[in-house]
Every structure is written in structure tokens, then in C-alpha cells.
Known about the structure:
Elements (H helix, E strand, L loop, with lengths): L2 E5 L8 H14 L4 E6 L4 H5 L11 H8 L13 E3 L4 E4 L8 H4 L9 H6 L2 H4 L3 E6 L5 H9 L2 E7 L4 H18 L5 E8 L5 H8 L1
Parallel strand pairs: 1-5, 1-6, 2-4, 2-5, 6-7
Antiparallel strand pairs: 3-4
InterPro entries: AAA_dom (IPR025669), DNA_Partitioning_ATPase (IPR050678), P-loop_NTPase (IPR027417)
Organism: human gut metagenome
Protein name: Sporulation initiation inhibitor protein Soj
Amino acid sequence: MCKIxxxxxxxxxxxxxxxxxxxxxxxxxxxxxxxxxDFDPQADxxxxxxxxxxxxxxxxxxxxxxxxxxxxxxxxxxCIRHNEVNNLDYIPCDINLANADLFLAGVLSRETIxxxxxxxxxxxxYDYVIIDCNPSLGVLLMNALTASSGVIIPVQVQDxxxxxxxxxxxxxxxxxxxxxxxxxxLGVLPTMVDRTNASKRVVEQ
Length: 205
């Protein structure tokens, strides 16, 4: 059964994309069939995968827009690229994804669009789907968490990091209690840890 895992934190600069790409790569190197999804308009995961946006094939933005009927429907299999170096498949995105709040406004059950997209036989052949979420609490994050069975939260080791963590876990709890009771927090991952006493104190907390 395919496991869909979101890598999420509403704060940028915490190593989220690095975590997502490394987890996807590690799973692929263990002979799992892995699909990584770039769900962040900054498209950093796409860059990690050496995406060349000149092939003319659709991206994550096209999938979303097509699903809500604002353009021609796109098949998910046509969006998948392969990264030979890391032996994983991925769906890239582009800056158009930044307009998601705009083009999804007023769409019925808009927080379930990604879940419906991933409910596809092409996706079911994978062992893992890893979603690199955008750093916000908007409609894209809601879609990712609604579609996922688990979430990993990278947290930069700083004294003020826990305020944002509490906010995010509150959102996750709301989603668990309403539209996705199967969503599980798989772990909080400390990132950018150094040897200082401050880092040690925060990790212990």
C-alpha cells in the first residue's frame, strides 16, 4: 500500500526541501518505488532533481488547474519525470503554483483536490509518495495534509522555533478531527543542529 508522507513546516529556511529530497532518495536507494512531489512554488525540490523546464510537459500547477476545470485536464502520468542519479520519480512545479489560493477560491472541497489527484492507479504503484510542502498554512498545505497518511516536521534548532510548531500541530489536529483521521505525525526532525549548548537544550526540549 502506498504511503503518502508530507514534509511540512510553515516557516521557511528550516531544511524542509533538503529533508524531503533526502528521505525520498534514501527510500529509493533501498529499492522502494518513490514519487517525490514538489508542492512549493519556490520549486526547490525540482531544482534538486535537476528539472529542466523546457520539455513542455505539464507540472503540478497544471494538474491542480486542470482538476478544477480551469484548463484542459492533465493526466498525472504525463507530469512525472525521472531522476536517474537518485533513481526516483518526481512531479515538478513552477511559480504558477503561487496563485493556488486565487484559482482555488470558491472551489467546492478545495482542500481535497490533491487527494483526488493522487487517487490514481499510476500513484498506487509507488511504495512512497513524499510531498515537499510550501512554507505556509494556506490551501496548498491543507491539500497536502488531507492527502497524506503521515507528516514529518523539520524544525530548526532555535529557541523561538516552538511557537510555530505549536501552530502547525494545531492545524494538523484540526485536520485529523475533520477530514483526515488517518493523518499521523511521524516525527519532529531537528535540523541545522550544531554543538552549542543552546542547540543541545532545544533538542532536549
